Every structure is written in structure tokens, then in C-alpha cells.
Amino acid sequence: MSTELKSKKRTFKPIDSRQPTVRKMDFETMSDLPSHYFAGNSFITHMINAYHILFPEGERFFIRSVKAFSDRVVDPQLQTNIKAFIGQEVQHGKEHEKVLEILAQQGRPVKRFIRFFEWSAFRVMLPFFEFFFGKKLKLSVTAGMEHYTATMGEITLRHGFHEKTYGEMRNLLLWHACEEIEHKSVAYDLLQTVSNSYTLRIFGFFLASWIFWGYVVFFQHWFLLTDPGIGWKKYFQDMNSSREYGRILIAETAKAFFLYLKPGFHPAQTGGYEMEDRALSTII
Ligand SMILES: [Fe+2]
Ligand SMILES: [Fe+2]
């Protein structure tokens, strides 16, 4: 890692949930990424890989959904936060696309996965439901997805999952987790500005739940099935050794699911801001 890169990474602006900041990163040194970069475990590595598939396209969808309503915002603070939200998501997409290049070099059928995701989610499923619910539905789905990305970020930091991950991938996941927590209220606040319908918020959340979990399990297994380094023995071994992480993930995301259903819910209620500020400072 170059000295120039190190010094760039050490000048982070501190976390501020009231005014998120765009932090440009440059994770260039992942060409040595091992096939199973999460503690040698293929089951979890391919689950994270499934998120790498979802993120760039998903984040472009978030940006489109938010931009469609940003002109309705009169609160100058929310306007500023929307700009930062868009800037952060652009940067996340760029860095995850670099990972996709590495995964393609490892022989993973990344392009096929992305084509399938883009077609089924953004050309078929969401336009179908938008026809009945209108374009506010996409914003509602975005707010719901943001609840999950922030929840995953909080779980990652609280349990130190990123520390099990190899090299620069650890830093990328940590940086993304921190910024997801930092901007977790933005899409939700915009949705509340546009519509205070509980039905719209919850229906969008159900679709977000399907996208965030259904596609992840599907792509995780597609990665596993097309990985020549995995036989049945390793599959079951790695599945067994991922149970301790799975238990935490299922328990905490189930809690987050029911929290979002509460009529008085707001993303800021779950906090996590001091934790992310401490975590961000560990990126060297
Ligand atoms: Fe993101
Ligand atoms: Fe986000």
C-alpha cells in the first residue's frame, strides 16, 4: 500500500449523522484477494459476494428513487443530506465495481449475475408494482433497503465481522458500513416528506426484504455452485462453521424487521454513531 494512499485514508471527516460527508476512497490493492476471503469460509464469502452483486445496481436505483423527489424538499438540511447521500452511494458503487472486476478475474460469472438481477428486479418486479402503487413505491423500497444496509453495518461493527475479512476488503466493508449508518435517515426522511402513508412504507419494506434477502441467498448459492474449489464436503463444513455468524445475523435482522413495522419508527432510534466513528479511525 502506497504512502500516498495511506495518508489519503487518514484524513477522514468525522461521522456526523446530522450532516453526512462524502469520503472518496481508492481501494486498489485487492488483486491478491483470496477465493474465500472471510476466514477461509466459502459460505460467508459468497454471501458477501452476493452483496457485491447487489450494491452497484441497487445503489444506482437508490439514487434514481431519491432524485425523483428531491425537488419537493424545502428543508435546507435535508436537501444537503440528500446531496451527501447521493455522493456517498456513487462512491460505494464505484468501489464495489472494482471488487466485481476482481471476482470476474477469479472466474466468477459476475456479468451473468448482474444481468439477471438488473432484468428481474428493475425491469420486471419493481415496474410491475410501480404500476399499481406509483413511483413513490421506489422511494419506499429505497427507505426499506437503507434500513437493512444500516442494520448490516451495525451488526458488522458490533460483532467485528469485518475483522475476519482479508486485507483491503476489510477496509471497504468497514467504510461502507460506517457510511450506511451515517446516512441511514436520509431516504426515510424524504419518504416521510413525500408521503406519511404507513401502508406505502410497509409494502415497500416487504419488497425491500425480498430483494435484500431473497436475491442474496439465491446469488450466494449460485456463487457456491459455480465455485470449482467447493465440493459437498467443504460446503457442509463451511456451512457448519458459519452457524455462529448466522445465529447473530438472523436474530438481529429479525429484531430490525419488527422495529421497522412500528408506526413511530425512525432510523435514528438505533444510533450506532459513536461506534462507527471509532471503527472508521481504524482504517489505515
Ligand atoms: Fe451504500
Ligand atoms: Fe445507503
UniProtKB/TrEMBL annotation:
Cited InterPro entries: UCP07580
Residue ranges of the TM segments: 202-225
Keywords in alphabetical order: Hydrolase, Membrane, Transmembrane, Transmembrane helix
UniProt key word Ubl conjugation: no
Domain of life: Bacteria
Entry annotated with the keyword Hydrolase: yes
Gene Ontology terms for molecular function: hydrolase activity
Protein name stated in the entry: Metal-dependent hydrolase
Taxonomic source organism: Leptospira gomenensis
